[in-house]
Amino acid sequence: MLSPLSWWNDLFFNLPIAYFFGYIFSLFNADLFLPFSIVGYWISNIAGFLLMQFGAADVLQKSERNLKKDLLIGLISSTVYTIVVVLLLQFNILENPLLSNLVKG
Q1: Dist. CA 42–CA 48, nearest whole Å
Q2: What is the pLDDT of residues 19-39, one digit of tens each?
Q3: Taking the C-alpha atoms of 29, 33, 37 and 43 in order, what is their torsion angle to the nearest 10 degrees?
Q4: Which of 58, 62, 72, 102 has its CA 20 to 30 A from that of 22?
Q5: More reliable by pLDDT, 94 or 39
Q6: pTM for the full model?
Q7: Residue in 44, 5, 4, 3 with CA at minimum distance from that of residue 21
Q8: Backbone torsions φ then ψ of 95, nearest 5 degrees
Q9: Strand stretches in the chain, DSSP E
Q10: Residue-level pLDDT at 11
Q11: Are 81 and 73 in contact (CB under 8 A)?
């Protein structure tokens, strides 16, 4: 249910977490909502990838885990995922009318 590779994960977990994160920061300044929603989404994806990676490592590996290596791999995979989504939006391969309206003002 919590797999960051499933569509419902974004719908039921990442987007509400990102919205809440952005909302908290928008209480200080309304212009902070969008950037901190993106940051919250990114953080929730990193957490999802790390949890998935730790779970898979527990099942597949019997040896000691390298926490530093696991965190680095999770950070890199989440960053690549975020960059891909941003590029797809930037080049209009994915369209998001709500985001376009927010950016245009």
Answers
A1: 10
A2: 999 999 999 998 999 889 988
A3: 0
A4: 72
A5: 39
A6: 0.59
A7: 44
A8: -110, 140
A9: none
A10: 79
A11: no
